[in-house]
Structures are given as C-alpha cells and as structure tokens.
Amino acid sequence: MEQIYLDHAATTPIHPLVLDTIYSVEKEVFGNPSSVHYFGRKARQLLDEARYDLAKSINAQEKEIIFTSGGTEADNLAILGTARANRHKGNHIITTLQEHHAVLHTVEQLEKEGFDVTYLPIAENGKVSVEAVSKALTDRTILVSIMYVNNETGVIQPIREISKNLKSHQAYFHTDGVQAFGLTDIDVAALGVDMLTVSSHKMNGPKGVGFLYAKENVKLSSLQFGGEQERRRRAGTENLSGIVGFQKAVELVKKERNERIEKYQGYKQQFLQILQEQNVEFRVNGDLDDSVASIVNISFPKTNVEALLTNFDLEGVAASSGSACTAGSVEPSHVLTAMYGKEHECTTNSIRFSFGLSNTSENIETAALRIAKIVNRLTSNKG
Amino acid sequence: MNNKQDIRVVVGMSGGVDSSVAALLLKQEGYDVVGIFMKNWDDTDEFGVCTATEDFDDVVRVCNQLDIPYYAVNFEKQYWDKVFTYFLDEYKAGRTPNPDVMCNKEIKFKAFLDHALSLGADYVATGHYARVRERNGRYELLRGVDDNKDQTYFLNQLTEDVLSKVMFPLGNMHKSEVRKIAKEHGLATATKKDSTGICFIGERNFKEFLSEYLPAQPGEMQTLNGVIKGQHDGLMYYTIGQRQGLGIGGAGEPWFVVGKNIKENILYVEQGDKNEYLYSDALIATDINWIHPDRVEDSFTCTAKFRYRQQDSPVTVTKIDDERVKVTFGERQRAITPGQAVVFYNGDVCLGGGTIDEILKRDQRLDYVG
Known about the structure:
The structure holds two protein chains of two kinds.
Chain A: E1 4-5, H1 16-28, H2 38-57, E2 65-68, H3 71-85, E3 92-96, H4 101-112, E4 116-120, H5 130-136, E5 141-145, H6 159-166, E6 172-176, H7 188-191, E7 195-199, E8 210-214, H8 229-232, H9 240-277, E9 283-284, E10 295-299, H10 305-314, E11 317-318, E12 325-326, E13 329-330, H11 334-340, E14 350-354, H12 361-380
Chain B: E1 8-13, H1 17-29, E2 32-39, H2 51-66, E3 70-74, H3 76-92, H4 99-118, E4 123-125, E5 130-135, E6 138-143, H5 160-163, E7 166-167, H6 175-184, H7 206-213, E8 219-222, E9 228-232, E10 255-261, E11 266-271, E12 279-290, E13 299-305, E14 313-319, E15 325-334, E16 341-346, E17 349-361, E18 364-365
Parallel strand pairs in B: 1-2, 1-4, 2-3, 4-7, 8-11
Antiparallel strand pairs in B: 5-6, 6-17, 8-9, 10-11, 12-15, 12-17, 13-14, 13-16, 14-15, 16-17, 17-18
C-alpha cells in the first residue's frame, strides 16, 4: 500500500538539492565559523553568505538575522527576549488564543514572571480582528505577537493592517511566520513587523534550524549564554550545514513559490471535490478563500479525531489534528476552540490535511478516496 | 479470511509484560496486529508527569520492536462515568466494589472493542489469563491454564457476542513462560514489575486516595451487642473480614470487621478468626450475566468463587429472575462481601456471574453485614 503524506504543515521532506548541499558542506567544511584560521574562515564565509541570502529573502539586513534551532526557539527568543529587556517600558503583552504553543506557553511563562497578557479572541472565520488589537493596546503594552498563518487552519491573519495601527505605538510587533514563509513572499519592511520567526523544515529544508528576524532597533536579551555568536543574542556554535541547507531551501522556495502555490491550490480543490463527489459529510474550518494553498482543516461530523487519524494511518494516509493526543490524552484543538467555543463538536472531529512536495495529483486522488471510504464507513452506522 | 495476514487483531496494550507478549504471539502467528494504548485515568501531577506517559512509552518501544503500528485512545470520560462513578457509589453505600469487573465490561470489552471494530478489527486481544473456546459456533469462556493467574473472575460480565470477537493469547500459558518469552525476545517490558492494586490508585495509599473523593465520616466501632470498641475512620475504609487497622487492643483473639450500619455510621466488629458472625450459608446476587443464557436452568449446581484467587466452592444456584439469583453454599462461607463478584464455573468453563448483594444465613438476611 502506498503511504501518502498529507501532513506537510508538521514537517516536509527535504528537497534533494538541499540534501546535496548539506552533504557537501558536511563533507568539505567542518570549521568553526568563530575560529581565526583558514578552516574557520571557510565556514564563516558560508555562514555569511547564507545570512546575506536569507536576509535578502525577506528584505532585511544581515545583522537582523539571528539563527536559532528552529521556530520554537525563535519564538521564545522574540517573546522572552524583548519582554525581559523592555520591562521598564511596561509589562503588558498582546497575543491571540490561536497562537502556536511555542508562543502561548512562552507568554504563560511571562505571566508567571508578572507580565499581563491579553489573549485576543478568534472569529469563526479563523481570524483575529484588527480593531481588537488596537483596542487592547495600553501605554504599558510592550509586545504584540500574532502569527502570520495559523498552523491548523492555514488562515492568513491581517498582519499588515495590524502593523499599520502599531506604527505609532512603543510595542514591538512579532509575527510567527513559520507556516507563511514557504508560500508567501515576505518583505519585512512592507509588512511592518519588528520580528519574524522562520523555520527551515517547513519548507523542505533540514530540521533544527530557523531564524528570528529582529529589526535593528529591537532590544532583546539573550536566552542562552556562552560565546559571542549572533551578535551575542544567541550563544552556541552555528549549525552550519543546516543553515546552508536552509539557505538552499529558501533559494528554491523563491524560485518555485508561484508554481508550488498553484500546484497545492489545485490539490486542495481536487481533494475537496472528491470528498464532495463521494458524498462525505464535512465542513471546512476557517476562511477557505483567505488561507494558504497548502493547508485545509476539515470537520467530519459524527466522528472523532482518534478514530479518524488511526483509520487514516492504517489505510496509508498521514494527516494530523490540532488536538494533541500523546499517550492518549486528547486536548481539544485550542485553535478550533478559539474559533467555535468550548465543547463544540468541531474541536474534536477535525483533521488538518496539508499538501506539499511529496504529493501528486494521483496520490491526492488516492488519498481522498481512501478518506471518503473511511469517513463514510464511520458515519454510516451512526445515523 | 483464511489468510492470517488479512485478519486484523487490535491488541489492548497497557505497557505491561502480559499485553506485550500477547502482541508478540499474535504477530508471530502472522496476524495483522495493531497495538492500542488506552488512557482511562488522568493522574498528571503539577509537573505534567503522568504514569500513562511512561506506560505509553513502553507500548511504543515494544510495538517498534515488533514492527507493528501503535496508537492511543482516550476513555477517561467513559471510565469516569461508567467505572469510577460506580466505584464511588458502591463505597458510599458501604460496599466493596470491584472496578476491574466493571472496567472489563464497560471499557475494555465495550468502548475499546467498539473503537477497535471501527478500525476494521476482526478481533480484539488482551493479555488476560483466560481462554475462549469455540464449539459448534458457540463461544465459551474458559479459565486460563495458570491457576494462579486465571482472570475469568474479572471477565464474568462478558457476553457470548463479545467473546466471539476476543482473543486471549496468554490463556494457555503460565506467567513464568510469558516472562521467559518476553526475555528471550528482549522485549522492553520483559522485566517490568506487574501492576498491583486498582489501576487508577496505583501505588498510592488507598485511604488517602478515597478521601480525596468521598468525605470520611468517623464513627463508632461496636460489637453486635452494642459494646463500643473504639472509633472508625469512615465506613468506606473497611471491608468485611478485615483484621488490619482496627486498632483494638486488649487480650484474646484478634478482632474482625463483620458488618456496617450505614444509617447510623457504625462499624461492627467481633472477636476471633472463626467468629460465627463472619459466616453465612447463602447470598443473593444481582446484575447477573450468563454467557449462555439459553443454557441456564432455573436451578442447578456448579462451583463458584466469591473473591479473586479463592478456591472454587460447590453451590446451588436458583434463579429469582433474569437479573437475580440465590446462591446456596455447599459449605458455609466466611466473610462474603457485598459489592464483590460471585462467579460461576462448570469445570473450566466460566458460566457468568453477578454482584453480591445480600448475605443470608438460615434463610434470614444478615442485615448487619450491610
């Protein structure tokens, strides 16, 4: 049975050209970029080139890029780093109820340290309201953190509009762009954000690497201490091959982005159409017209996440849900709970399907037919 | 469906050695084996640590060794509603419940079975020490061959329909063999300690646990003649025949719990291991389940167990109605406890069972037992 991967929002297969790049870096350049000899210089050269390319890819300066171990660390650094460094200006933080746990659990930690956090609600279409952000601002607000694209629903948030309203306010504006970058052309100047989180493995790059863009004037305390890497904002020897692989992945994204968007949008339409043709009862969560091409979140009434995901996997379809079910603990999706309220059935019967490089029109069709069969079987005997 | 690889068996895996070996044996036989971990209870502490996580990690390790897919399913709500609520209600009523019987009836062989069937399972399997025998299209429940481990006592509420979809791969084995197989195959759980006690209480202090859910009402400890012998900590902490923890000093033979008066919150105690008040000659059982209801006559003789791991005793069973029977003992029995299961056997065949409700002596209800 062909195993079909529809979980590209969790992670993506590495692109073969990225793999080649990593391999050649590991093979040829092993120096420490901080070393003062030939080997160090060779490594430093690659690191600087990568930093230059990645900065350019979002219209930033090189010194505004802080390499991290990935999205989670970049989110932590952005939030903890600015909150702790700017406490004298205020202790209020604004975020939303649908952020990734890398953001939510980090601001919860800050609450324990005495910060006040406002969690903005999410409308049923999956978006935060621009006005709500403005209304929540106080003169003690030092940070606003709102994701660019929600990782469960794929819904694009009004970042540009929010940033306009924040222009004259002291608060830094951070956006987690982990799900956005591969499918959206991001220009940090035009977007008007002070900080942006990007992760490599969501766009066919290697795991364990990402960066935080932090605008030149952003005051940030480091979370880890040691060497002077990343302008003292992130101590630790750089993951050179990962960073260069990341650079390659971004280069490919830039080149192929439009083509990929068109392709994934096609998969999404094809997928939904087959479910419809097979008379599957479903509804799409979040605004389908304002979501990234690669993600669709679908509620299947009269089912539950555990039975769906297990059945899908046994039939060779890999998908996931926002409700974490590690060791059998099922937490309803906090994103869908934010959209629909507690106890709403969609929070326990919704699955995220996300498309990517490992898909073809053929395997999308096969997967959709398998899913239709399973859902129809699960719902047929429940009236 | 002659080919075993086309037969899907979903194994309920606890992270213990028994269910690990059950999965191993099925895999060796060539079935399409799927491992599923059930989470029925949340004991997450303030640091986010929960025993289920460790047990699930063991399931993951074993399933990876066996190269079978594994998943988890959550039945916390069902367990709370069907098992734990019953457990507390019985204690409130002064009885000694058997949550394992209820867990098998409502969770493992109902909620879990339904879940497995929804995954296209042909059978569910567990690591219970019991056997299912098919004869002429009828399914019987048989004792496990390891006398010391036989778990049919806890399975007495299963129906024939359920048994037709169940496999007990360890039914023909002794525990020592199971451990040996686990070791030979280097299973991650080979030397893991067996779980003891009630699953949701685990290693914790029973009294402490119960007091978190039920308010303890201390009261008097009296003999049946009304002589006050001391204070009890709350009737729910005591069971019929209990000797430990009474704290009655003085000369003579030890003291035993012989009954409870829920209304007046009195614990009845009497002296002597062979005290007459500990004995009875019949009982009324409710919630009777017959595995083959069509084969049960209005009155018949068989053997019975009144507690887990007790020797069988000859009894005469007389139907009162579809859900109740009177069980008359061949020889008088000591410390029969309301709330526990009475389970009937014909040789190795488990006929079914019920819940002990009333205790009788010379056809009189022993009201003092509770």
